[in-house]
Design brief:
- By secondary structure, this protein is α/β, with parallel strands linked by helices.
- It has one domain: Spore Coat Polysaccharide Biosynthesis Protein SpsA, Chain A.
- The strands form two sheets. The chain has an eight-stranded mixed sheet with strand order 2-1-3-8-5-9-7-6, with helices on both faces. Strands 4-10 form a two-stranded antiparallel sheet.
- Helix 3 crosses helix 5.
- The protein starts with a strand and ends in a 6-residue tail after the last helix.
- Helix content is 34%, strand content 21%.
């Protein structure tokens, strides 16, 4: 298994953490993050305003979200075209601890294959639909509703091809897209607890452009409606 660390060149606040990840993760390499502003300015990305898939996404993509999505697609392409059955993709603010991370990796090597996608989230926000396996306090399970955030995930070679085929046009953030198993056709499993933490604030804050502060109530209402629509489409065992 190879590891792919998404990192924006020149981000010195995260350079030390990237160096540690290169040392700790299996066969690790840095993948240069895509600058969303550049690709938008050059017209190098196909985007829609949240209306490509159902349910419609109620917010426009920011340049930072576009760059994040394209950075993950870059890793998917490397996995899809590589020789390994699966690869580990992490963002550069991910920090693994020494207590649960080895157990999580043991379960990955026991159960992952080219057709699998396994999330390793930093927070417990998913309810298990069915348990697959457990080891050393870590559980591999099928979540009823797939959680958000993309700090770490294992993507199989065939799974990467499914995700690439379904995301040639972008209309929502990458983590929101990955929730839509009914669109990309990929079953998504979760490993938790897993020893993963997301040290965004400690490493200089988010690299994705923040949302506008105006109309907060309206945004929260739209967000709640969207999440309700997603919840109506659970994964099945």
């Amino acid at each position: 298994m190879r590891s792919y660390i998404i990192h924006m060149q020149g981000n010195q606040a995260r350079a030390a953490n990237v160096a540690q990840l290169l040392d700790r993760l299996p066969q690790a390499q840095v993948v240069d993050a895509v600058n969303g502003r550049d690709v938008v300015a050059k017209g190098q990305v196909n985007c829609r305003q949240g209306d490509l898939h159902v349910p419609h996404y109620p917010f426009a993509l920011s340049p930072g979200e576009i760059g994040c999505f394209l950075s993950h697609r870059k890793c998917w392409e490397m996995i899809a075209n590589g020789d390994d059955a699966f690869g580990l993709i992490v963002e550069d603010d991910m920090v693994p601890d020494d207590t649960l991370w080895p157990s999580a990796m043991e379960l990955v090597h026991q159960h992952a294959g080219p057709d699998h996608m396994i999330r390793l989230p930093a927070k417990n926000r998913e309810k298990p639909q069915s348990l697959v396996a457990s080891h050393g306090g870590t559980c591999l399970f099928l979540p009823k509703r797939i959680g958000l955030q993309t700090v770490a995930q294992v993507i199989g070679r065939h799974a990467a091809r499914h995700l690439l085929a379904a995301s040639e046009t972008l209309d929502r953030p990458v983590d929101t897209f990955l929730q839509m198993h009914w669109i990309h056709g990929q079953t998504v499993h979760t490993l938790y607890p897993n020893g993963v933490s997301e040290e965004t604030d400690a490493l200089g804050g988010s690299t994705i452009q923040s949302r506008p502060t105006g109309g907060k109530l309206a945004r929260e209402i739209k967000r709640a409606i969207y999440r309700t629509q997603v919840a109506l489409r659970p994964q099945r065992p």
